[in-house]
Amino acid sequence: MCGIVGYVSGVPLANAQHTAVDVLMGGLKRLEYRGYDSAGIAVVTEDGALESRKKAGKLSNLAELLEAQPVTASQTGIGHTRWATHGGPTDVNAHPHLADGGKLAVIHNGIIENFASLKERLLAEGVEFTSETDTEVAAHQLAKNYRATGDLTEAMRITTTQLEGAFTLLAVHADLPGTVVAARRNSPLVIGLGEGENFLGSDVAAFIDYTRSAVEIGQDEVVTITPDSVAIIDQSGAPVEGESFEIDWDPATAEKGGFASFMDKEIHDQPQAVADTLLGRMDTEGRLTLDEMRIDESILKSIDKIVVIACGTAAYAGQVARYAIEHWCRIPTEVELAHEFRYRDPVVNEKTLVVAISQSGETMDTIMAVRHARQQGAKVIAICNTFGSTIPRESDAALYTHAGPEIAVASTKAFLSQIVACYLLGLYLAQLRGNKYRDEIGLILGELQKIPAKIQSLLDDHKDQVLDLARRLKDTESVLYLGRHVGFPVALEGALKLKELAYIHAEGFAAGELKHGPIALIDEGQLVFIIVPNRSGRDNLHDKVISNIQEVRARGANAIVIAEEGDTDVEQFASEVIYVPATATLLAPLLTTVPLQIFAMELATAKGLDVDQPRNLAKSVTVE
Ligand code: M6R
Questions:
Q1: Contact between 549 and 571 (Cβ < 8 Å)
Q2: Is any ligand 1 atom within 6 A of the Cβ of residue 410?
Q3: pTM score > 0.90 for this model?
Q4: Does the Cβ of 597 fall within 6 Å of ligand 1?
Q5: pLDDT tens digits for range 599-612
Q6: Cβ density class 533-554: b for 16+ within 10 Å, e for less
Q7: For residue range 558-593, what is the model confidence (pLDDT) as tens digits?
Q8: Does domain 3-249 correspond to CATH entry 3.40.50.720?
Q9: Which atom number of ligand 1 is nearest to the Cα of residue 363?
Q10: Tell me, which fold does domain 459-616 have in CATH?
Q11: Residue ranges per domain, the chain?
Q12: Once rounded to an integer, what is the mean pLDDT over residues 32-38?
């Protein structure tokens, strides 16, 4: 996973508003969500010296080291925040890795699969290694190619032909103040264009404080940035024109804005995230238009199956989508974890529409599943939050969520906006294929438009209740979540949030499954969240879930019920009720999820844990 920043500037240091260290450390701060096992930087000074600092642990440790042992002010540098793969999270294994007698520094995101055979060859040639990382192999290989060619860009190009696996590599050399060379394969990298300065980043958050102009870098391309130029070549050495785009994220959305954590802020961003994802989707005649749908309408009319592929929270968004899409469009819809999909030999062909959901657009499992689906002839639509990322780039069409940058590792606003985007896709297909009349679609869109205000009132009226509940229950050791219909994926999501933030055993079940086994877990005091469907949904479901509440209460459970406002039936059976505003049955997850997010966040906070950067995790899982 790892976060990567590169910077070059031609502004003389005497007039510069920021140095390379300022830009690198600011960028790493924004990218720390990608990994926080260690961090490091390397700079090249104007008189051609390379200096590097690196430290295990969070970025603050590196900041302290830089205070104690500052580097010389410079305008060229690279920075890295690590999520460990090869080699533990130690000072030595932290990036950058040096080669060529300490004159070349390399940082890396990804996994070099053939590092062992390359290392063996380099060892035989007398190269000495100091770390256990695969990255150091790339550094020495690059140094060898640089010695042979005398050209860092060409050396990087040759190196990419020798490496197998996934990588973004950035390199600086003491010989070349004012130059950063980079390459990418199956791992993200974007260019930021400034005036007299240029940037590289794992994503645009790395340089959002300095520029809104960005350029995508394609697969297996090598880029060389100097203060005044950006040159991209492909693996054969031919020049390539990168696709430019404008960043519409407000830098303020990547700040905490007075909240205790990014997660807290992002929970509160949800009304806006939903509203922005809905924005501008109707034409003047009240028809739903999805401009990004570049797939021919005749193909969309002929599809006979939808397969949603995603991981983690994004897969739960897909599970919610299945209920809506099948109901509205009558197209059989499957949801599959992306990492299982391609190994199962799924039946996918030209009549299959694959929907790949990903906040980051860089989840390697989902990227590989997209590639597999396209090889089988399927059309792929990406639902994604990150412009310029790999999944939308490699898909046939992209429907962007507009949640803004999501920094906390636990997904919140991305989840709600993914669900909204799926609804839009479902309604669009229903309109196109004639399953729904325009007024029917208008009614659902009307309900969707009311959701932001409802999330806001839920936050205003019920957040304190949930905070108090979480604090009271902070010593809980196990939590079960039950839901039915669209409440089932909400139960799964609630359990995932608690696991990843509070390190507590938590499981989500379909409430109907309770009596088939999980009820054996219920004992005196067992905490159970139950998401109750509204009374106007599927026949009897509401009453059946009320029976489930009684069943667990009868066995001593502490039953916390999430129900629609006005559903007083639940009160006599629940230990406590958290009410959410009423909405249409299929839209309920946009509300019922919110108390579960707050509960997990606050329980983790009460336990003294870091809710933005939980242990062992990283925001983008860019390795398989
Ligand atoms: O960036 P993606 O949406 O592809 O990420 C998918 C999952 O890794 C992600 O949702 C993960 O499960 C989150 N940590 C959940 O909070």
A1: no
A2: yes
A3: no
A4: no
A5: 999 999 999 999 99
A6: bbeebeeebbeebbebbebbbe
A7: 999 999 999 998 999 999 999 999 999 999 999 999
A8: no
A9: 4
A10: Rossmann fold (3.40.50)
A11: 3-249, 259-436, 459-616
A12: 82
